[in-house]
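User: quick one, sequence for these tokens?
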């Protein structure tokens, strides 16, 4: 079976001749025909439903105002992408352009009509936002989780589908294990994903919130946040000295194992033998780790 990879984004599904900027009028569709041909055409905004698979939850109003002003002055540089579903148009990609058009009071919007399944619709929405680099990490994580839950995808399949490596997908999904309040801070950009990952090294919610508050109050760097997190972990286990003087060979081994499993791994040596601890953060994550272990038997 051919692997579905949408790393090329919208360009992979839209013919090059259709994405060229076009001027002039295009006839408005008054009735919807299942056999309508693909191509750029103006469609009535009141006949266009928003995309229930839209991964973005927050829309910056100032940015929307800027986009509306740009559209008013220069027109639409790129049409929205829609599909025909239940004899209606449904948006696949371009909700910011649609919202800007509504702000301007436009009755029509240029669109490319594309045959697409529910999975295609979600994939394309994620890809478009990620390629524009303006989808925040929490919205990304929620979108990946929807791919897992609604389309029965493993982390490996999600990674293949969106053109990212599995470790990146795993790290983004881990953000959903943070308290909701901290997720909101990440979503708004109050703290970075690097800060969030450092906070995730703490297991107790109260400790996570306390460290997050310290980060914002003292404007800590990611490195400082990681240092504070290690001190908290060390204080809880009485092993601060051991952490600071750990065998560099074990550190190197742990790093190698983290890259393999896409999660935190701890190697503990004893006088005789020792143990390897592999963390997981959900039932799905546990199954992913088990699958990786079995695949190397």
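Assistant:
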């Amino acid at each position: 079976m051919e692997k579905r990879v949408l790393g090329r984004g919208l360009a992979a599904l839209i013919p090059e001749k259709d994405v060229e900027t076009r001027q002039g009028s295009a006839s408005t569709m008054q009735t919807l025909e299942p056999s309508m041909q693909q191509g750029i055409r103006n469609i009535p905004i009141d006949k266009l439903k928003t995309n229930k698979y839209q991964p973005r939850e927050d829309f910056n109003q100032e940015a929307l105002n800027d986009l509306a002003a740009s559209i008013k002055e220069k027109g639409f540089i790129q049409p929205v992408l829609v599909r025909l579903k239940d004899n209606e148009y449904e948006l696949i990609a371009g909700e910011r352009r649609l919202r800007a058009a509504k702000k301007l009071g436009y009755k029509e919007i240029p669109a490319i009509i594309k045959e697409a399944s529910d999975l295609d619709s979600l994939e394309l929405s994620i890809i478009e936002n990620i390629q524009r680099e303006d989808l925040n990490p929490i919205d990304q994580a929620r979108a990946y989780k929807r791919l897992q839950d609604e389309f029965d995808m493993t982390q490996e399949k999600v990674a293949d589908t969106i053109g990212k490596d599995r470790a990146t997908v795993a790290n983004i999904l881990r953000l959903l294990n943070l308290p909701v309040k901290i997720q909101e801070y990440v979503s708004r950009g109050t703290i970075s994903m690097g800060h969030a990952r450092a906070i995730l090294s703490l297991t107790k919610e109260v400790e996570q919130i306390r460290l997050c508050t310290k980060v914002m109050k003292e404007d800590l760097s990611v490195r400082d946040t990681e240092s504070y997190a290690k001190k908290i972990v060390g204080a809880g286990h009485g092993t601060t000295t051991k952490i600071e003087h750990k065998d560099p060979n074990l550190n190197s081994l742990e790093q190698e194992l983290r890259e393999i499993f896409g999660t935190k791994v701890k190697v503990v040596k004893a006088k005789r033998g020792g143990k390897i601890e592999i963390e997981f953060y959900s039932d799905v994550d546990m199954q992913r780790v088990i699958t990786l272990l079995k695949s190397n038997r």
